[in-house]
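Q: How would the structure tokens look for this protein?
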Amino acid sequence: MKICMIGTGYVGLVTGTCLAELGFDVTCVDLDHEKISRLKKGEIPIYEPGLEDLVQKGIKSGRLKFSTDIKPAVKGSEIVFIAVGTPPSETDGQADLSYVFAAAKTIAESMEGYTVVVTKSTVPVDTAKKLEKYIKEINPKADFDVVSNPEFLREGSALEDFMNPDRIVVGCRSKRSEAVMRRLYNPFFLLQTPLVFTSPESSEIIKYAANSFLAAKVTFINQVADLCEKCDADITDVSRGVGLDSRIGRKFLQAGPGYGGSCFPKDTIAMAKTAEEYGCALTIVESVIAANEARKSAMADKIKKACGNSLEGKKIAVLGVTFKPDTDDMRDSPSLAIIPKLQEMGASVTAYDPAGMDNAKALLPKVKWAEDVYETLKDANVLVILTEWNEFRYLDFSEAKKLMVDPLIVDLRNLYPLEDMKKSGFSYYSVGRPPVKG
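A: Here is the predicted structure in token form.
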């Protein structure tokens, strides 16, 4: 089976590479000549553990190819994936589908024989229906079906998520397209992965609903953490006690500075906007969006309070600026709201991140960037942890204390056990847990 993947961003590159690993003949196409040139050499434009090795393996096997010439790739393919960006519109926050329809136009002009056109991009409900109409208008004789097949990849663990998924969701209208998609995902049969077939409309909503629900879990536990701080409870214990309920589950119950990234922010906004367009307000989702935005500002205030209610002239050491570990993605990272507010309050900021600094420099131009953890700490009045990279978990507190002006840590990711911090000599403020006074 030959497959064309239009778009070599995060979703397209991971999906295309993994399909090649499963034995399919995959051509990934993109209009960015520089990116394709790098990919042909096995160099990937994103940070994702294990992906570069798998790309190089796919190229060597001959099953993974990269091209800027979309039309020939579409012509020879039984399945064409659309995996282009759907950023929020600047006008109303709804997903911008201009790249999706541009890809559909090329597909309509290029396809030969029966073709299954699959939307892998995250798109609002009714997009499949609109694409069917659009392709037919351009090419009335085209023999095709449009299928919705949302991705559920987490940055930092995308290969594992693709190869061992919780479920595979496919929205299609015809038995013919269903048969093609069953062949595509047949390698997952031995894993007994649930293969969920729905209408395209249901499939499109599943993606948004899943991300909105997870964002709600994050926001809920963050607000519970605020309550814990008021009454000397420990959010770590509360999260564990709640998460062990099988109806709730333990994932996404870690308190922190708020969610970010490429999915939750834009998908919650798009979900709320879609509901508004259909006259069905999702007040829970709207509240989640508002609460998450407010939390970022509240975290800056938390740091100020820990520093004696003044940041004027203070030097702040920040560890981690990406929205999560094991990625270089800065999109909607809490650091983009927290750090500028700290600077507005009079603080200077020195920061270090294992993978995100190149992307962050243009977004946070007033930050001084360090080469490693301990360079960041030199002469700092407070250490602030914004991202839970593993290398931050084993900080040498005695060395840190020598480097810093004041022994003060504000940990917005709850990296360290309270018992360890009581022995460290630091004053330690975390999220939803009692403070430790040094």
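The mean pLDDT is 96.

The first strand starts at residue 2 and ends at 6.

Upvote if useful.
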